């Protein structure tokens, strides 16, 4: 990103001093950090001692050493999450002055000249959904007095020719219907360098100097106008803040899986994010979307480095958001989490397989952060964010290894043929009256308490908050939903463990990841698709179950909760992905969320407009975009004008010149297109034709001038379709 050539970038501290701003009084984050991590460490220490004591009673060996090394790491991760829920509960009940929304009054601050760009990067997304979401945000802002200070940018990296043309068509339609000429812009990159982070960087290099702030959205993001203006006012009230991240709530889920995840997100997230904000304070994190960013310091300090070495660890950074937050903090700018600011939404994956596909990319991006853990100048709290992101995925293979080593320890002992004689006393005399089985149950109970206490706390919070209880459908329905969500989570947790373990191993072997599009609104997972994705999980569960049974029925029954999720992974994945199941659950009043019991107008508007659009209108048959761009004079004129405008920019003109072949090759492609139809061209060849403004103008003339017998039969049907429209 561009840097001022004539001056060293100004840090937040220097800006505060230049403006004569007094230091904002902060809570003592050091004390909060100390007590927060002390509680998690104390729980882990106690559980580890009990676990080591049990191993000692059963006879110490090499397997015991390996298990006692792994156990505290796994338990600490669980205790860390539990501590977030504990602190979050008290914050929700009694408040916390350590919040960006409580630090300075901001509600009455005028936006004035705080020009803000709302940017929407897209990549082969469902066009109708993207534009209806943008429409809802635009109209929500238009109702407010300060709505005119915002401009919208659709930043397309779409590679599918049909999506490309459809995006242009819907853009002009939206501008015309909203009267938003000069307010909503569309730009498609010719070369998708560095994916989303490169897309944002290119936007800033071209337009960043015009705006004080930018709000980054995702393709499925929705934000209320009041939330957006609140974010800008918070920035205006706190001039040393570089980034404020909202907490998006999941909405619009229709499948059973999506509804369960949506319910869990809306019920449990407030506890965890309130607890997270308690100790991170101005050292918060960035999640890549639904956040506001101060443009100038972001351009100056947040240019992402290229990691040394080969992929998957080297090259451009996939999970750019964590790193950008760390770079912002390194320069002295504050990063906050606006955990209590409502009106920020996103959509989740419809099924277990789609969720895993998304995690695959995040897994590689988070593991890349291991290259940056000791980067010069990073704040300690930024290193914690990076480390926790890494262990968010490393925890799965560690859990798998822990269970495997436990199985091997039992198998190796059984192979000796010796009888087990438990020591009457272990390392802790107070536990001397407990049998080994009772000792094991004590550790199991402590582990389950740490894992499930957050759910119990969330249920308790509903009991104490009548209004919140009603927003989830009432106490009874919410209670049943919590119980069912817990069962489903227990079933899919082992499957996600196997998914994530496979991801980590493939990355360590050097396999990269493709930049795929998240499937939104899928009708459900086919049985064949589920079999291909889960047959290994099912086989693993069956084989491991048979081994466990041979080792002893007691061990087998201890292991059943984990094995069951693996064995039934195929039907669970299929049925949870079904919309019909999601509709039945909603009809029963289960897994309701506040956005369903009292829908925000923006969410309602999207639902209504999408419902009024038929599946046929939203579908993009292969070749439809190219056909429209060639046949429809209006679409052709828009497409050609956008290409010509792009050629006025030297950077984009150079990109187009770089990808276009020689003129003879272009002529051959367009002649083949007319004579044989779009099916005769690959997607790459279609993009080449669509990128050449001379060819698009020529094709439009020729398609209407040439005799029908000289054209492919496909064009006759396409002409009839366009004529109907």
What is the global morphology? Answer: globular
- The spatial strand order of the largest sheet comes to 3-2-1-4-8-6-9
Figure out the total of helices.
30
Distance between the termini: 44 Å
Strand content: 5-15%
What structural class do the secondary elements suggest? alpha/beta
Q: Regions with pLDDT < 50 over 5+ consecutive residues?
A: 1-7
- DSSP strand count: 10
Quaternary state, please?
A: single chain
Q: What's the average pLDDT? A: 90
Describe the structure.
- The protein has 725 residues and is of the alpha/beta class.
- It has a domain at 623-724.
- The chain has helices at 12-18, 29-58, 62-94, 100-103, 127-142, 161-178, 195-207, 225-237, 256-280, 295-301, 320-330, 352-368, 380-416, 436-464, 466-471, 475-508, 527-551, 553-567, 569-576, 579-587, 594-597, 601-611, 615-618, 624-631, 633-647, 650-659, 663-676, 683-691, 693-705, 713-724; strands at residues 116-122, 150-156, 184-188, 213-216, 222-223, 241-246, 249-250, 291-294, 334-338, 344-346.
- Helix 6 links the parallel strand 2 (150-156) and strand 3.
- Helix 5 crosses helix 8 (225-237), helix 17 (527-551) packs antiparallel against helix 18 and helix 25 (633-647) packs antiparallel against helix 29 (693-705).
- The protein starts with 11 loop residues before the first helix and ends with a helix.
- The model is unreliable at 1-7 (pLDDT under 50).
């Amino acid at each position: 990103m561009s840097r001022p050539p004539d001056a060293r970038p100004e840090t937040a501290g220097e800006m505060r001093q230049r403006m004569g701003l007094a230091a904002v009084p902060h809570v003592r984050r050091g004390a909060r950090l100390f007590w927060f991590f002390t509680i998690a460490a104390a729980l882990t220490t106690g559980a580890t001692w009990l676990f080591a004591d049990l191993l000692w009673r059963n006879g110490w060996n090499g397997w015991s050493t390996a298990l006692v090394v792994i156990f505290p790491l796994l338990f600490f991760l669980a205790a860390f999450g539990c501590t977030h829920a504990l602190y979050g509960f008290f914050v929700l009940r009694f408040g916390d002055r350590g919040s960006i929304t409580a630090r300075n009054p901001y509600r009455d601050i005028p936006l004035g000249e705080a020009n803000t760009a709302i940017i929407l990067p897209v990549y082969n997304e469902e066009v109708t959904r993207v534009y209806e979401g943008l429409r809802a945000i635009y109209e929500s802002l238009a109702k407010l007095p300060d709505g005119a200070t915002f401009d919208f940018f659709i930043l397309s990296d779409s590679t599918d020719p049909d999506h490309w043309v459809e995006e242009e068509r819907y853009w002009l339609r939206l501008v015309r219907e909203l009267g938003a000429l000069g307010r909503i812009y569309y730009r498609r990159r010719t070369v998708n360098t560095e994916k989303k982070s490169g897309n944002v960087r290119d936007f800033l290099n071209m337009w960043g100097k015009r705006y004080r702030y930018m709000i980054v959205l995702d393709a499925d993001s929705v934000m209320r106008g009041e939330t957006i203006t609140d974010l800008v006012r918070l920035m205006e009230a706190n001039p040393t803040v570089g980034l404020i991240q909202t907490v998006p709530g999941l909405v619009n889920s229709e499948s059973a899986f999506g509804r369960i995840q949506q319910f869990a997100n809306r019920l449990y997230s407030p506890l965890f994010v309130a607890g997270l904000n308690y100790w991170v304070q101005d050292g918060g994190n960035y999640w890549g979307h639904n956040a506001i960013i101060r443009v100038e310091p972001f351009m100056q300090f947040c240019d992402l480095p290229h990691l040394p070495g080969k992929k998957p660890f080297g090259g451009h950074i996939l999970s750019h958001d964590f790193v950008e937050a760390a770079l912002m903090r390194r320069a002295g700018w504050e990063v906050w989490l606006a955990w209590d600011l409502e009106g920020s939404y996103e959509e989740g994956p419809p099924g277990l397989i789609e969720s895993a596909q998304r995690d695959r990319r995040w897994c590689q991006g988070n593991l890349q952060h291991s290259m940056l853990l000791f980067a010069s100048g990073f704040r300690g709290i930024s290193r914690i964010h990076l480390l926790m992101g890494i262990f968010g995925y490393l925890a799965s293979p560690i859990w798998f290894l822990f269970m495997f080593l436990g199985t091997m320890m039992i198998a190796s002992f059984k192979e000796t043929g010796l009888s087990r004689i438990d020591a009457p006393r272990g390392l802790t005399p107070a536990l001397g009256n407990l049998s080994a089985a009772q000792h094991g149950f004590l550790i199991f109970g402590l582990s389950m308490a740490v894992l499930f206490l957050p759910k119990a706390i969330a249920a308790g919070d509903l009991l104490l908050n009548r209004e919140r209880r009603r927003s989830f459908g009432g106490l009874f329905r919410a209670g049943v939903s919590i119980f069912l969500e817990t069962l489903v989570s227990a079933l899919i947790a082992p499957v996600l463990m196997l998914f994530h373990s496979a991801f980590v191993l493939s990355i360590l072997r050097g396999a990269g990841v493709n930049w795929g599009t998240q499937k939104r609104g899928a009708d459900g997972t086919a049985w064949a698709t589920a079999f291909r994705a889960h047959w290994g999980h099912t086989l693993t569960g069956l084989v491991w179950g048979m081994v466990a049974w041979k080792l002893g029925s007691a061990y087998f029954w201890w292991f059943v909760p984990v094995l069951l999720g693996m064995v039934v992974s195929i039907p669970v994945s299929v049925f949870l992905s079904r919309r019909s199941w999601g509709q039945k659950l909603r009809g029963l009043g289960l897994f309701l969320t506040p956005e369903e019991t009292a829908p925000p107008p923006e969410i309602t508007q999207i639902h209504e407009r999408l419902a009024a659009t038929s599946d046929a209108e939203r579908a993009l048959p292969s070749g439809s975009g190219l056909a429209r761009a060639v046949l429809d004079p209006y679409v052709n004129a828009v497409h050609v004008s956008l290409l010509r405008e792009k050629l006025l920019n030297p950077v984009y003109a150079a990109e187009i010149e770089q990808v276009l072949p020689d003129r003879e090759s272009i002529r051959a492609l367009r002649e083949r297109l007319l004579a044989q139809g779009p099916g005769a061209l690959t997607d790459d060849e279609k993009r080449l034709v669509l990128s050449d403004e001379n060819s698009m103008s020529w094709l439009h003339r020729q398609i209407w001038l040439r005799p029908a017998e000289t054209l492919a039969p496909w064009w006759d049907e396409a002409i009839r379709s366009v004529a109907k429209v």
